[in-house]
Amino acid sequence: xxxxxxxxxxxxxxxxxxxxxxxxxxSEHTWSSEAGAHGPLVLCTAAWLIWRQxxxxxxxGVAGRGWIVAAATIVSxxxxxxxxxxxxxxxxxxxxxxxxxxxxxxxxxWTQIVRNWFIFLYLLFAVPPPRSWLDAxxxxxxxxxxxxxxxxxxPFGIPATHEGVTIYVAQYQYLVEDAxxxxxxxxxxxxxxxxxxxxxxxxxxxxxxxxxxLAIPIAIFANILRIIILILxxxxxxxxxxxxxxxxxxxxxxxxxxxxSIFAIDSLxxxxxxxxxxx
Length: 279
Known about the structure:
The protein is mostly helical. It has helices at 2-7, 9-31, 39-52, 54-60, 66-86, 89-115, 117-123, 131-153, 183-201, 205-237, 239-242, 245-278, and strands at residues 160-163, 166-169, 172-175.
């Protein structure tokens, strides 16, 4: 183990040198926004997962091949440099991620990466997706949640209509922002749900995929509920209340509901499967 770490010290030193500018860029562009608020949580929990498996990794790890380490280092550095030079946070974060995986491979080999595949997949949630992808997905989601929210409100006597991503209720006009589209909640909810599934149910990729698929409609419905809550707050308590502290509180509230729904579904499925096995 000591021999592997000693031979990889240049990589570790280079990784530390990349960590500072990467952390600054991520905190300025991504972590400070709702879209990337889950990033630090993913990094911390992934580090804890690696520490949790550290004894097995140390005892069974075998140093990786030098030429693969060299090639992966070059590719990761190129991604990081291009991202830093052209202010493309996705490439910069991808390069930083690649260096981390390269160091792990250099010390412990490919077998340990395969055995701990979930951790490396989970860490990808800390890499912000390209802005063009987000824009392409966000706009139709904003239109859908706008249409769904107005359709739910009208039967209760609230004269809500929408035009594109703008909702009209009486004298008020609501513009559905990116944060209310559901995409941010989908990414964050997927990350936390997968972490929970891994701890509670192991690393079964089939079960993880099933619950992750359920997380998508749950997150979208939660954001429809968020829009409805904000409209009702504006209607009955005024715009100042809805756009103040209650705006953030509504987001936290519906995210907690969505996360609780995932936990409840998992518990229900587990209990049903246990009863079926006993029967």
